[in-house]
Amino acid sequence: MSGHSKWAQIKHKKATTDQKRGILFSKIAREITVAARAGSVDPATNQRLRAAIERARSFGIPKENVERAIERASGAAGAESLHEFLCEALGPKGILVIIEGITDNKNRSLAEIRLVLSRHGARPADPGSILWNFEKRGSFEADLSVTKGPALDDIELAIIDAGATDIKKDDSCWVIESTPSQIEGVRSALASRGIAAKETAFVYHAKTSASPSPESEKMLHDLVEALEGLDDVQNVYTNSNGDTSDL
């Protein structure tokens, strides 16, 4: 009996993982379609599309899926019904929350979000009442493991001159941020030194952060996880300076 139970748990875990993977693939495909529709279908001239394609590759999404998502932006059925939306909310203990999404039915999406918020001690906020505390930034990672000594200082100065506003260093991996309009210049400064950017994203960064208690941080983690589990939610940002990913 215990063996059957263990196998059932393994199957359930795999099903949950497969389900999350399927949802993730769908979300990235939507982002590719919307990015291509909003600009050029050529990733060389559309930085948002290029970032979405890079993300698709990092998760192993097949090339034909990416091509199909781009084709939808060129007039395929269903593409015109996709719309972007942004919600603002007050999370547990007053934590600020920004929710980005893509949907074919905004009323349905907002109703689902409101339900999740109410179940996790949060509530919708008036437009603009939360967003003022966030700014949009371009962000990407760079692997500098092959670069040593004085060359690192030269690279850091070069990307700052190109517009980098923040650099987080974790051994040889740097996470670099800039304004969206300057992200290409920063990437080019690295590329000219033989360093490729990866995991490019355009994110909301809190201007001021909050330090919730461990209990509130756990509540926030559960809220973010529930929101990210919704099909129409693309990204969730908060002004918490804690890391909820391992809670």
Radius of gyration: 20 Å
What is the approximate shape? Answer: globular
Which CATH C-level class of the largest domain is it?
A: Alpha Beta
Which secondary-structure class do the elements indicate? Answer: alpha+beta
Share in helix: 40-55%
Main location: cytoplasm
Family: Belongs to the TACO1 family.
Protein name: Probable transcriptional regulatory protein A2847_01915
Organism: Candidatus Sungbacteria bacterium RIFCSPHIGHO2_01_FULL_50_25
Question: Could you characterize the architecture of this molecule?
Answer:
One of its GO terms (cellular component) is cytosol. This protein has seven helices and eight strands, in the order αααββαββαββαβαβ. It folds into three domains: 2-79, Arc Repressor Mutant, subunit A; 83-132 and 207-238, YebC, transcriptional regulation domain (Alpha-Beta Plaits, 2-Layer Sandwich), CATH 3.30.70.980; 134-206, Alpha-Beta Plaits (2-Layer Sandwich), CATH 3.30.70.980. It is of the alpha+beta class. The model is unreliable at 1-15 (pLDDT under 50). It starts with a helix and ends in a 9-residue tail after the last strand. Helix 1 (2-38) runs antiparallel to helix 2 (47-58) and helix 5 (150-162) runs antiparallel to helix 6. The strands form two sheets. The protein has a four-stranded antiparallel sheet. A four-stranded antiparallel sheet has the order 5-6-4-7.
